[in-house]
Design a protein that fits this description.
Strand content of chain A: 15-25%
Strand order of the largest sheet of chain A: 1-9-8-4-5-6-2-3
Distance between the termini of chain A: 41 Å
Largest sheet of chain B: 7 strands, mixed
CATH architecture of chain A: 3-Layer(aba) Sandwich
Number of strands of chain A: 10
Largest sheet of chain A: 8 strands, mixed
Number of helices of chain B: 6
Number of helices of chain A: 5
Oligomer: heterodimer
Helix content of chain B: 25-40%
Radius of gyration of chain B: 23 Å
CATH superfamily of chain A: Glutaredoxin
Strand order of the largest sheet of chain B: 1-2-5-4-3-7-8
Helix content of chain A: 25-40%
CATH superfamily of the largest domain in chain B: Glutaredoxin
Number of domains of chain A: 1
CATH topology of the largest domain in chain B: Glutaredoxin
Radius of gyration of chain A: 18 Å
Strand content of chain B: 15-25%
């Protein structure tokens, strides 16, 4: 009986660790319902998706201070918020990095950056790094567009903002905007997932 | 005395074990298959000569050839008895820079054993002359460094490997049709182990 108990315990531990190892890599797929969170904003107030009663959805952007790709997209993220917030899709920016591993991404420096760039949207710290693995974000910047429905915030688009990180003027495909425009017209998003080079999330 | 076998603790325990065994088997299986991908389609006839760069940057005796993805792709499809270790990195990427010495060491250690390390920089175009070339010079890098300049990354990331999300560091190790992909940072020991698994 003791041996059986031990075996069962080993299996339980094994099963749990196997699952926890898989989960962060998996994350949300298009069509999944994204869970809400409560994270600290640069103004020290907690922010949840549920706070935005009038929103039709969200542009959740995992981004940070230090990453050159994230920096290259800062102005375009601000432009997205300015254009789509009034249409019901505000930007919610989340820094997924562990500040202990990446000093430039500390909460204090997030506050500095948000002020310098006049961020028009919440810039939240994923304290304890619990939120980004649920989404399945692997890098910065990494965009998730959610649409508010009766069943919750449904993931409609995952990926890049557009097809040219290095030169905003040379962009041909505005992936995020195309997805948002489709959602606003109650149409199916044509390109649901894209890939981009980015900085790996620091854990 | 009534005997409810369904409530017998040993029976329930057995059921639990079977269930758990099935579960852990399923999850383990998923785990081992994911990081490894094999090229299924036959290799196209590969041109024997070096891929042609679209531009060559040169400064202080350091030369780095620049490619768009089409020009670069043959580097991922060489079909011979050499094992290629292709690492995607950038000067601004801290974990990439941390693991670079391991790739350099691998390149030196396996020089005479048909192993070639190729370091593919993904720096920004405006940073090649100011950051990449001085970095290559300062570190006296011995492995071949090339520059991949193709901003439409969505069009080519999956062509490197469908499992790649686009985060760097990322590494492909291949020999002929045998190929493995890693979206991770390496220690020297782990890198050498993976090299050996593809070389054999």
């Amino acid at each position: 009986m003791k041996a059986i108990k031990f075996l069962a315990l080993t299996l339980v531990v094994g099963a749990i660790s196997a699952f926890t190892m898989i989960k962060p890599a998996a994350g949300y797929k298009v069509g999944d319902v994204a869970t809400d969170f409560s994270l600290k904003n640069v103004d020290n107030k907690k922010v949840s998706l549920a706070d935005f009663k009038a929103a039709k959805g969200f542009i959740v952007v995992f981004t940070c201070n230090h990453c050159p790709y994230a920096q290259a997209y800062e102005d375009r993220i601000i432009a997205l918020d300015k254009k789509y917030k009034k249409l019901g899709y505000p930007v919610i920016a989340i820094n997924p990095n562990n500040p202990a591993k990446q000093k430039d991404d500390s909460f204090e420096l997030m506050q500095v950056r948000a002020k310098e760039k006049n961020f028009t949207f919440p810039y939240l710290l994923d304290e304890g790094q619990k939120v980004y693995p649920q989404y399945g974000a692997t890098k910065t910047p990494h965009v998730y567009i959610l649409q508010k429905t009766k069943v919750g915030n449904v993931v409609k688009y995952i990926g890049a903002i557009d097809d040219n990180y290095s030169d905003a003027a040379a962009v041909k495909e505005k992936y995020a905007e195309n997805a948002l425009d489709a959602l606003l017209k109650n149409k199916e998003v044509a390109v649901k997932e894209t890939k981009a080079i980015g900085c790996s999330i620091k854990t | 005395m009534l005997n409810f076998s369904g409530l017998n603790p040993i029976y329930t325990m057995r059921k639990m074990i079977i269930l758990l065994a099935v579960f852990s088997f399923m999850s383990c299986k998923k785990e081992v298959t994911s990081p490894e991908t094999t090229v299924s389609e036959p290799e196209k006839a590969v041109v024997a000569d070096q891929p042609k760069p679209i531009k060559v940057y040169e400064k202080d005796g350091i030369k780095v050839a620049s490619y768009d993805f089409n020009a670069f792709e043959p580097f991922l499809k060489k079909d011979n008895d050499t094992t290629y270790v292709v690492n995607f990195w950038a000067t601004w990427c801290v974990p990439c820079v941390e693991e670079l010495p391991h790739f350099e060491k691998l390149n030196t250690t396996y020089k005479d054993q048909k192993v070639k390390v190729l370091l593919v920089s993904l720096d920004m175009p405006q940073k090649v002359e100011s950051n990449l070339l001085p970095f290559v010079k300062k570190k006296s890098m011995q492995s071949e460094v090339i520059y991949l300049n193709d901003p439409d990354a969505n069009a080519w990331i999956s062509k490197v490997d469908t499992a790649w999300s686009g985060a760097i560091p990322a590494t492909v190790i291949y020999k002929g049709g045998q190929r493995k992909f890693y979206e991770q940072q390496f220690t020297y020991e782990a890198l050498e182990k993976e090299l050996k698994s593809v070389m054999k």
